[in-house]
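Open question from group meeting: does this chain pack into something compact, or does most of it stay loose? Before anyone orders reagents, we agreed to write out a predicted structure and look at it together. Recording both the input and the output here so the notebook holds the full record.
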Amino acid sequence: MEATLFSFPSSKPPSPSLTQTQSKTLLTRPTNPFLSLTPRPTRHHHRLLTIRSAISRTKKEQTVETIKENLENCHLLAGIKYKGLTVKQFQDLRKVLPETTKLIVAKNTLVYKAIEGTPWEALKPCMTGMNAWLFVHSEEIPPAIKPYRDFQKEKKLDSNDFTGAVFEGKFYAPEDFKQLETMPTRAEIYAKLLGTLNSPASSLVGTIQAPARELVMLLKAYVQKLEEESGGGQ
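C-alpha cells returned:
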C-alpha cells in the first residue's frame, strides 16, 4: 500500500516584510505594451492626416498665387494691423475702398514668400503681428489711402494703423505716411505742367537751367505720356 502525502496551508500569517515586498513588486512591475489600453492609430487616421495636410498645402499655394496676381500692376502695397478687427468691420471696410484697391488677409510668411526676390521685398519690416494687406492698383495714391484713414477715425481704431508700405521700391514707415497721403494727384500734375507750359519762356529759363525750347519739348512729351497712360487705364 502506497503512502499518500498531503500538504496543508500553514496556519501562520504571512510575514509583513514579505507582503510589503510583494506589494512593491506588483506596483513597480512594467506594463506589458501588448496589453496597453491606448488605441493605436489606424490606417484611416493616417489617411485623414495626409488629406488635411494636402488641403492645407494647397490653400497656402493658392494664397501665394493670389498675392502674386495682385502684385501685377500694383503701385503701392501697405500693411494694416488686423488684430482686433471684427469680421463685420472688415466687411464694412471693403465696401468703402475704391475698385482699384483690394484688401487681403494673409499670413506674413505667405506674403513674404510671394514678394521675396522682388522690389516689394522692401516690405519685410512689416512682417510681424497680424496684417491685412492693401493692394493699390492705381497711381492715385492719396485717394486709395484716405478711405481707410476715414474708416479708422470713424471706428476709433487708433491701434489698427498702417505698419508700413512700399511705393516705387521704397519702404515707408508709419511715420512717413504723410508723404504718401499728400502726394499730388494726376489732375494736379496736369494743371501744374500746363501752367508751366503757358508761362513765358524767360520764366522757365529763370527757374530751370535748360534751354527754353528743350524744356518745352520735354514737358509736352511728359504730358502726352501721362495722357496715354490715363487713356490706357480706362
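Observations to bring back to the group:
The CA atoms of residues 82 and 90 lie 9 Å apart.
The chain has a mean pLDDT of 77.
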